[in-house]
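Class, discuss our next protein.
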Amino acid sequence: MIAATVHLVAFLGAILFGCAILLAVQVLSGGARERRDSLQQALQVAGWVLILAGGLAVLLIAGLIPAGVAVIVLPAVVHRRRRAQRYALLSAMVVGFERRIGVIPILLAFASERRGYVSRRAMDLAARLQAGWALPDAVDATGGLFAPDIRLAIRMGYGSGRLAQVLRELVDRADNSDAIDAQVAGKATYLLIVLQFLLMIGVFLMLKIVPALQRIFEDFGVELPGLTILMVKVAHFATAYWFLALALWVPLTLAACHGILRYMGAIERDLPGTTWLRRRVHAAALLDTLAVFTRADRPIADGIAALAQWYPVASIRMRLARAHGDVLGGADWCASLARRRLISDFDRGVLEAAQRVGNLPWAMAEMAEGNRRRHTTRAVAMIQSAFVAILLCYGLFVFLLFVGNFMPLIKLITVLT
């Protein structure tokens, strides 16, 4: 807090110093723009740069950014609290299933001890179960109570007769997808905000400062520094081919908006066209479900058919339907899943070997956990690498922009002295 206050005072001082320079130029020139000499014009440029830099810094410290962060963080906190309550309810249900206690008393007890959104949804679920609904249908109809992966697990466990074990594994398994969503949301939002401010600064400098510098140097008959000339050429290129900037701006905006909405709990789906980025997560979910059917001595074809009907991602459901058709046509289920790109060739090899030795359920569970670990590792590596690469590009842009604007002032002072 003290450090932020010190920086805020320093930036306000820069703004006041810039205003003082502009006021001095105004007094010296008598208020007439045409009577200002080159030195006064250079001082005016320096004053505007100080005001601009200080003003943007003040906004970053005490203005728009904290407000934006609050808008994002507060709903995210509410979502995390509800998520913790959902998992507490799920844990209570697991205990009830394991001890053969009815789920309706557990739901009513949970709702009576807590208040809020999850408590109301638990009451709705209990009412539907009392009305004779099957548990998977009641959970699906009670919107907002459980996430799609939990609803799928409940339906698959219920259909295979191993609901307690499925939910116990789901509760015990650490889910770090939220951490990845938080990284995407935070880094993409940070880069997008920095990009917006850099664009505003760049447009202001190119429209207000650079033309003034060009006129000043023309009056003195001195050529602009090479770095400034390069900056002007880059600016002209960016103006002529502005649409190329969309290749950076659009993906950052989509990633930031989607990551923020997922982090806030507003949406649960993948960004359209990006399902392949989470293919290992989907493969893990498929293998977990098939392992449940295998432990229950149910045909794997039944598990694939159930997944093709109830899996929450439409593109995966289409592939599962095709794989099920292949299996019904006599194809091997491992080969069919690999052919439809639902599992990798490595997974296929391990599962075929496990099937030959009679250890298929254990192999499915291990392959599912391995897919999750590989997804987390690669996702974090991709996010960090992309973040560093974009930061380097930003640094190059800042170097070119600000050094290109301050080099003329240094050269002008050297010429005048």
Q: What stands out?
A: Residues 360-416 form the longest helix (57 residues). The mean pLDDT is 78.
